[in-house]
Specification:
The chain is α+β, with helices and mostly antiparallel strands. The chain contains six helices and 14 strands. The strands form three sheets. The protein has a six-stranded mixed beta sheet with strand order 3-4-2-1-14-13. A six-stranded mixed beta sheet has the order 5-6-7-8-12-9. A two-stranded antiparallel ribbon has the order 10-11.
Amino acid sequence: MKLITWNCQGAFRKKAEFILAREPDILVIQECEHPNKLIFNSNTERPKDFLWFGENKNKGLGIFSYSDFTFQLTDNHNTDIKLVAPILVTNGKTDFILFAIWANNRKDPQGQYIEQVWKAVNYYEHLLNNKNLILTGDFNSNKIWDKKHRVGNHSTVVESLLRKEIYSVYHKYFEQKQGEEKNPTFFLQRNLTKPYHIDYCFASNEMYAKVKNVEVGTFDNWIEYSDHTPLIVDFDLGDEC
C-alpha cells in the first residue's frame, strides 16, 4: 500500500496527474478544493472513494482512494478540531484507522497549528490504542518552533504518541532526530533557502513494521506545483492488501 500526503497549494484538479504518476493507493491532499470544483481533465484517473473536509471551498482536506480501500468517518469526529479527520479504512482483507491532517484553525485562540494535533491526540486517545493506526498530513509544525508554544507544542505531541508506540515514520526510517531533518517538505515562498520539515506520517508499532520504503519529494521535482513536496510511504501489507 502506497500512502502519500501532499499539500498541493490549491487547484488540485490541475495537478492531480503529477502526483498520480507516483501510483498511490491512498492520497491525503491539503489545500484541496471542494468536490464541486474538482473537475479533472479527461485523462486523469478518478478516485474510487473520496472524503473532503473544510469551510473554504477553495482549500480543504481531501482523502482519495485509488485502490480497493474504502473510507468511513468515525462516529466521534470532532469538527471543532481543524482539520483532523479520523477515518476507518478497509478493503475487506485489512482495516486500519487513518487520521488525515491539515493542522490549520485560524479561529482557535489557543493555537492555529500544532495545537490542533495536540487536541486531537487527547480527544481521540482511545482510538490511538488501535494496533493498526496511521496519522499523516501537514502538521504545520517542527520542534524548532517549540519555544513559541507553552502547551501542546511539537515535542509534546511526538512524546505523547511515542508513549503509545506510535512513531514518526520518516524519523525512524532515516534515523534522524526531530528538528534535525535532512529532507525538507516545505519551502516558504517557494524559496530553496527557506526549507522546513512540517509534513509527517506517524504509524503504530504494528504498522511501522510493515514499512518498506519512505521518500520525500525534491525541490526540483515539485516546486513548480507547490511550496510543499510529497511524503511517500510504502507499506507491505502482504496478503492483506
